[in-house]
Amino acid sequence: MVYDLSNNNPLIGQLLAEIRDVEIQQDRMRFRRNIERVGEIMAYEISKELPSKTKQVPTSLGIADCLVLAEQPVLATILRAGLALHNGFLNYYDKADNAFISAYRKHHKSGEFTIKLEYLSSPSLKDRIVILTDPMLATGASMVLTLEQLYEQGKPKEMHVASVIACTVGIEAIKKSFPDVKIWTAAVDEELTAKGYIVPGLGDAGDLAYGSKMQD
């Protein structure tokens, strides 16, 4: 199932307008904060789908019935680009366990690239609710590989993937390999460049947030 939050959330639309804008992108701190704010809105929207329970809370005048999460999810993200989006989720699920995965594109002279995973730190995911965040879901290759690695840490009872911008190609890649995964995005773009970047997209989210990198 795919949840496209741009369909009915103008706050998401306003943030996306700034995140995509090549002039506003020059303010690196504002770019990171806007990604984080999208994460906060998405965390709220996803919470509506998570199991809940009623908790009785004593006040100075009596007992209040409060609807709360039945359990905290595990928040997972792909380094480094996913950190700002992850922080937005962590602001809301502040008691959550966390998992971190290092994945990157290794480009070849032919113009093609392969996905490399070099680091994984995760609690057991068996019977847990997992929210995996990455700002850009392009070809879906790194996301599918990351999901494969996460499922080796124990089969979750729910898996959610959250991105700021998703391409239809990446969405279909996830649906093909992991049909039960719920995909959340703030926008769906249709095209990819020959190098696998989303069009119109926003550029390289990691570079915009944390600076350009040197990579073989």
Task: Report the count of strand segments.
Answer: 14
Helix content: 25-40%
Q: Which sheet architecture does the biggest sheet show?
A: 7 strands, mixed
**pLDDT under 50 segments (min length 5)?**
none
What spatial form do the alpha-carbon principal axes imply?
Answer: globular
Helix-strand pattern: EHHEEEHEEEEHEEHEEEEH
Number of helices: 6
The CATH topology label is Rossmann fold
**Judging by the overall fold, what is the CATH architecture?**
3-Layer(aba) Sandwich
Q: How far do the termini sit from each other?
A: 37 Å
Using the CA coordinates, give the radius of gyration.
18 Å
Q: DSSP strand (E) fraction?
A: 25-35%
The CATH class label is Alpha Beta
Write out the strand line-up for the largest beta sheet, numbering strands in chain order. Answer: 1-11-9-7-4-5-6
Secondary structural class: alpha/beta
Mean pLDDT: 93
Give the domain tally. Answer: 1
Q: What does the model show?
A:
- The chain is an alpha/beta fold.
- The protein has a single domain, classed as 3-Layer(aba) Sandwich (Rossmann fold).
- The protein contains six helices and 14 strands.
- The longest helix is centred in the first third of the chain and has 20 residues.
- It is globular.
- The mean pLDDT is 93.
Using brief descriptors, characterize the structure shown.
single chain, 216 residues, Rossmann fold, 6 helices, globular
